[in-house]
């Protein structure tokens, strides 16, 4: 709780420099998210961190599937699951956004198979998600239908102007 209080104090008055990360917190991903959110907070009231967890795919019609995530020019992707049309990833990704109202998340299911690339089956399909929908709901747990398959993903938006906690 002291950690959240320190972040809140810092975000309310960054010039006081009252941000002290806890010494026992080994979660580097969370610490990095908070630091980037704090940096962005001074630039925009609406800024924050979009956290996406890709849980699994079902009935994906590619040989070696992976999910590509794109927000603006920031691109990330899951690991490739070889010979698996029902992969389980449970991988989380973060995008720091200064203007979430203008951001679109593009999720695409792709294949890492050379043969799929030769036969133009590299991209199974995708979905575009307006980040403002996630901002309004703060948390979504959705199944996105892509081709004959689907992707289960969770999306969270953490505003950088007020303290929040996220269970990953």
Give the neighbour order of strands across the main sheet.
4-1-8-7
Q: DSSP strand (E) fraction?
A: 35-45%
Structural class: alpha+beta
CATH architecture of the largest domain: Sandwich
- CATH topology grouping of the largest domain: Immunoglobulin-like
Q: Count up the helices.
A: 4
Task: State the major sheet.
Answer: 4 strands, antiparallel
Walkthrough of the structure:
Strands 4-1-8-7 form a four-stranded antiparallel β-sheet. A four-stranded antiparallel β-sheet has the order 3-2-5-6. The chain has helices spanning 2-12, 28-41, 114-118, 131-137, and strands spanning 48-58, 65-71, 74-77, 88-97, 104-111, 123-130, 139-146, 149-159. The chain is of the alpha+beta class. 27% of the residues are buried.
Short account of what is shown:
This protein is an alpha+beta fold and 168 residues long. It has helices at residues 2-12, 28-41, 114-118, 131-137; strands at residues 48-58, 65-71, 74-77, 88-97, 104-111, 123-130, 139-146, 149-159. Helices cover 22% and strands 40% of the residues.
Descriptors:
8 strands, Immunoglobulin-like, 168 residues, elongated
Topology:
Elements: H1 2-12, H2 28-41, E1 48-58, E2 65-71, E3 74-77, E4 88-97, E5 104-111, H3 114-118, E6 123-130, H4 131-137, E7 139-146, E8 149-159
Antiparallel strand pairs: 1-4, 1-8, 2-3, 2-5, 5-6, 7-8
